[in-house]
Amino acid sequence: MNEIFEIVAANRANNKGGIYSVCCAQPLVVEAAIEQAKADGTYVLIEATANQVNQFGGYTGMRPADYMEFIGKIADKAGFPRNRIIPGGDHLGPVCWVAEGSVAALEKAKELVSVYVKSGFKKIHLDASMSCSDDPVALSDETVAERAAMLCAAAESAARDTFGKSDVVYIIGTEVPPPGGAAELIHDLELTSVERVAQTMECHKAAFERYGLQDAWSRVVGLVVQPGVEFDHTNVVDYNAGRAVALSQCIKQYPNIVFEAHSTDYQVHSSYAQLVADHFAILKVGPQLTYAMREALFALSYIEEQLLPKDQLSFLRDILEDEMQEKSVYWKKFYVVPPLKETLYRQYSYSDRIRYYWNSPRVEGAVQKLLDNLKRIEIPLPLISQFMPVQYDAVRNKQIQADPESLVKHKIMQVTKVYSDACAK
C-alpha cells in the first residue's frame, strides 16, 4: 500500500494531497468513481461497510469476495486496472451483532476482518467502539483499544496465512460518527479534543504492543476524529477551520498518521480543500453519492413520464415507496416524525435511507426498465434542460452523450469531482 503511505507523507509535509473514500455498493456509483479516477490518472479507494458486506452477506447480499469481484468487473468494463483500486473495509467490528453478548459478537467480528483480508481488502477500519448487550453503555478507551488490537491480530494472521505477509493498512479511532449520518436533528457538535487524540493513540499503541503487533502499528495510517462536520435529515454542519486549529495541529506529534474524516458528505465545496490542508487527508463519502444517483434516477423518471404511455412506464418512484413501506426496518427508527415528514424523509433526506433499497429485485428491475425505456428513444434536449440542467450543459458542450446512464454517472461525478479537486496534490 505504498500509495497510501505516499499520500500520508505528502499531506503531512505540504498540507496538500489526500484521498477520498467511496463507501458504496451501487454499480452506477462505483462506475462513476472509477471513471473519475481514470480521468484523473489516480488510484481509487472504494470501501464496503460491515452492514453492506459481511461473511453472512450484509444488506447487499454480498460477501467480501463477492464485493471484490463486483468492483473488479466494473473496473474491467471501464478499462481501469484492478490493481489501481484500493479496496477498504469500513466500520469493521461488532457493529452488526451488538444485540449479542460481547464474546459472541467479537468472535463474529474477528471472522469478519479475517474474511475481508483473505479476500484482498487492503485498508481496514478497526471499529470496536460499539457496546454489545452485556457491555456498559459507553466503553472505556482501554476496552475499545483492546478489542481493536484483537481484531487487528485476526487480520494479520489472515494476511500471513493467505499471502505469506501483511501489507494491510489500518485506521483506528473511537470517535466515529454514526454510519450514514446522524439519526436525530443536530443541535450541537463537539470536536474531538487534543486530549482525546492522545488518549486514543496511547491506548491503541499499548494494546497493539501487548498483542505483539508492532509491525502492524507501523501500518496504522489514519485516526478517525470528529472535525466538526456532520449532517442529519435536512441540515448540514459545515466545517469551521477556526474551531479545529488545535485538533489539526496535534496530528504532527504522531508520525506517519493523518486524520480520517467521516460524514463529510454535503459540505460546501471550499471546505474539502480546507479539510485536506488541515490534515483530514482521508475524506469519507457515501450517502451523497447515492443521493446524487437518486436525484438523477428520479429526474429520468419524470422525463420518462413525459415521453411514454402509462402502461410502459417503470414506476420507479412508486415501487421504491412500496418497498420502503413494506420493509421499514432500514428507516422507521431513524424517521420518528409525523407521517407527512416521513414521506419527505424517505425520499429526500440527506441521510438517504432510501439507499438500502436499491438492491431489492423489484427496485433493480424498475431501474433497469427506466434505463431501457430511455435508451431506445432520443431524449429531447428541452426535457434534459428542465430536469437535469447541469447535464444539459454537458451534453450541449459535447462532454457526454444524452443517454440515460451517461446522464446518471455525470450527476454522480459532480460529487466525485469536488472531492477529486480537493485531494489533488
* SS content category: alpha/beta
* Strand residues, percent: 5-15%
- β-strand number: 10
Radius of gyration: 21 Å
What integer is the average pLDDT? 96
Termini distance?
18 Å
Shape: globular
List low-pLDDT spans: none
Compute the number of helices: 16
- Strands of the biggest beta sheet: in what spatial order? 1-2-3-4-5-6-9-10
User: How would you sum up the major sheet?
Assistant: 8 strands, parallel, barrel
| Percentage of residues in helical conformation | 40-55%
User: Could you give the order of the helices and strands?
Assistant: HEHEHEHEHEHHEEEHEHEHHHHHHH
Structure description:
It is a single chain. With 425 residues, this protein is an alpha/beta fold. 49% of the residues lie in helices and 11% in strands. It has helices at 2-14, 27-40, 64-78, 102-118, 141-163, 194-210, 214-217, 245-250, 269-277, 287-307, 316-326, 339-348, 361-375, 381-387, 389-396, 404-423, and strands at residues 19-23, 44-49, 85-92, 123-126, 169-172, 220-225, 230-231, 236-237, 258-261, 282-285. It has an eight-stranded parallel β-barrel with strand order 1-2-3-4-5-6-9-10, surrounded by nine helices. The radius of gyration is 21 Å and the shape is globular.
